[in-house]
Structures are given as structure tokens and as C-alpha cells.
């Protein structure tokens, strides 16, 4: 039998790169947002106080209706005018004391499994980047797309820089990264817990709903998405 082309001429089929996106709060770190704990740390140290709490509450009230914490994700009145050096100086110690002990073993296993498949691991979160980076370093996560706070010289303005990775902004960031890295979102994975992750969960081919909150269990069941319980 004669082959139509020599074996030496057959080129290997190259698969396109695949990314695995991971949300942070209540996904890699089950439970409450790590920024909340950092706020209370700053409160105990006197870096933020009642006036800052009042500013945040007033900002939220101005956005009603509907009542949602989304405005406080996109704007941080309690950080406006605060020294960048002061706010960020204790992020590393905060990670070891408050964040590291809360890392989900299920999340670690999932990250390791994707890494074994040579998938690009992406930490995709609206949490401030200075709180996220120590975690990414510890877990050896190659790509971080976190919330970035606007700076004015040496202080924060309180505003988040667009695109802010939450809700539609999260999808925009994922799409930009896909274009830059050359992968197809339809082949990718996303692990998220809340409606803030929904646009990316809808954009990828392999959505995974972790520790669902705010109606996400119902959404996942309706769409046939896997529901994971991570601790």
C-alpha cells in the first residue's frame, strides 16, 4: 500500500492555548471578601475612621435605587486622599496572616490540574491589585487581572481604572487577554461564584460555578453548568 504523502511531511496539529480564569473572593478564598478584612485592619490602625465609613455610606446611598454594593466596588471613597505607601505597606503581612490560611484546597487542586494541562492560569478579580499580588505569587499564578486604583502623585483618588474587572468589565478584560495571548474563549474555563462573574461564565466554553451566591445556583442549574463546593 502506498501512502499519499511521506510520514516525514506530516506536520503535528498545534492546539491553541487555553486559559483557566479564577475569581478570587468566595472562589479561591471561600467566604467574605478579603478587602473587607483589610478595611477592618486599617480601621484598627486608625488609618481609616468614621469619616471614611460615612463617605462610603453616603456614596452608596446616592446610588439607590437599586440597592447594591456594586458602587463601592467601582469606587473606594474610604481610600480617597490616602497615602499609597501607607495603604499598601502591610499587604504582604496581611496576606500571610489573614489570606493564606483561607486558601481553598479544592482551588489549589484545580489550579494544579490546569497547570498540568499547560493551561494559562489567570486570576481575574475586582479586588485591589496590591491585595491580590501576594496571593498570585504564592500560588505561582502567571497572569493577574485585578482592580487597579487610580493614583494622584502619592495618594489614591478613590476611583478604579477602567476596564474594571467586574460584571461586563470582567468580560472585557478576558476578551482583551484572549486577543493578546491568542486563545479562544470557547475553549477556556472560568471559575466564579456570583453574578459579577456571569459575563465571563457565559463567554467561555467551560463555565464552573463555585460556592454560588445571589441566585447563581439557580442560573447554573438552568444552564446545565457544573456547581462546585470549595472549602
Key traits:
231 residues, alpha/beta, globular, disordered N terminus
| Secondary-structure-derived class | alpha/beta
Q: Using DSSP, what is the number of strands? A: 8
CATH superfamily: HAD superfamily/HAD-like
Total domain modules: 1
Distance between the termini: 58 Å
Computed Rg: 20 Å
> What portion of the residues fall into strands of 2 or more residues?
15-25%
Q: How do the SSEs run, as a string of H and E?
A: EHHHHHHEHEEEHEHEHE
Query: How is the biggest beta sheet arranged?
Result: 6 strands, parallel
Low-confidence stretches: 1-14
Total number of helices: 10
> What is CATH's topology name?
Rossmann fold
Numbering strands along the chain, what is their spatial order in the largest sheet? 3-2-1-6-7-8
Corresponding CATH architecture = 3-Layer(aba) Sandwich
Task: State the helicity in percent bands.
Answer: 40-55%
Question: Which CATH top level class fits?
Answer: Alpha Beta
So what's the overall shape?
globular
Describe the structure concisely.
The chain has 231 residues and is α/β, with parallel strands linked by helices. The chain has helices spanning 34-44, 50-62, 70-74, 84-88, 91-99, 105-116, 129-139, 168-181, 198-203, 216-223, and strands at 19-22, 120-128, 143-147, 149-152, 155-160, 189-192, 206-210, 227-228. The protein has a single domain, classed as Rossmann fold, CATH 3.40.50.1000.
Amino acid at each position: 500500500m502506498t501512502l499519499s504523502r511521506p510520514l516525514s511531511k506530516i506536520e503535528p496539529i498545534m492546539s491553541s492555548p487555553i486559559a483557566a480564569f479564577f475569581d478570587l473572593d468566595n472562589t479561591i478564598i471561600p467566604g467574605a471578601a478579603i478587602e473587607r478584612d483589610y478595611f477592618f485592619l486599617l480601621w484598627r490602625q486608625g488609618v481609616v475612621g468614621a469619616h471614611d465609613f460615612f463617605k462610603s455610606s453616603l456614596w452608596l446611598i446616592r446610588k439607590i435605587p437599586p440597592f447594591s454594593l456594586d458602587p463601592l466596588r467601582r469606587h473606594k471613597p474610604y481610600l480617597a486622599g490616602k497615602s499609597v505607601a501607607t495603604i499598601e505597606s502591610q499587604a504582604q503581612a496581611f496576606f500571610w496572616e489573614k489570606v493564606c490560611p483561607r486558601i481553598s484546597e479544592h482551588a489549589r487542586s484545580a489550579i494544579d490540574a490546569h497547570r498540568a494541562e499547560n493551561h494559562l492560569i489567570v486570576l481575574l478579580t475586582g479586588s485591589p491589585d496590591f491585595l491580590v499580588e501576594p496571593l498570585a505569587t504564592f500560588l505561582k499564578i502567571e497572569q493577574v487581572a485585578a482592580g487597579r486604583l487610580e493614583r494622584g502623585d502619592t495618594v489614591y483618588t478613590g476611583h478604579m481604572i477602567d476596564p474594571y474587572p467586574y460584571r461586563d468589565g470582567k468580560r472585557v478584560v478576558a476578551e482583551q487577554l484572549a486577543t493578546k495571548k491568542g486563545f479562544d474563549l470557547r475553549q477556556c474555563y472560568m471559575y466564579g461564584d456570583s453574578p459579577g462573574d456571569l459575563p465571563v461564565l457565559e463567554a467561555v466554553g467551560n463555565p464552573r460555578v463555585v460556592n454560588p451566591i445571589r441566585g447563581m445556583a439557580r442560573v447554573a442549574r438552568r444552564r446545565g453548568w457544573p456547581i462546585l463546593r470549595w472549602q
